[in-house]
Design a protein that fits this description.
about 120 residues; mainly alpha; Muramoyl-pentapeptide Carboxypeptidase, domain 1; 2 domains; 6 helices
Length: about 120
Amino acid sequence: MRPRLILLAALCVLAACTGKDAETRAREAEKKIKDSIPDVVGAALAQKASPEQIKLAQEELKTLSEYLGEATGTLDAVTVSAIQAFQRTQGMKADGMLSDKTMRLLQEAAARAQAKPS
């Protein structure tokens, strides 16, 4: 019991000897955590998809009721969010990227949806 108490006291002293108060340490920890989280939407917005490919994806996402905006061919956060939602329904990694696989599955799903009688 005594060695544990000594170890605990030593850890407390070491923690207090950093010269930083608890708020500063908490802010640094928060920043470190935020910096470790990837910016998925930012990466998706920076992808090199053509306006034609984006417009086609938007139209197919509309067919599937995943996208409610106009099919403009402009990649924006709403489009990325719709792509991510579709990817989740397909069991894919929801990264918002218009990969070949995402486009193929999107085209197949939209074709099935259009073939169904209303």
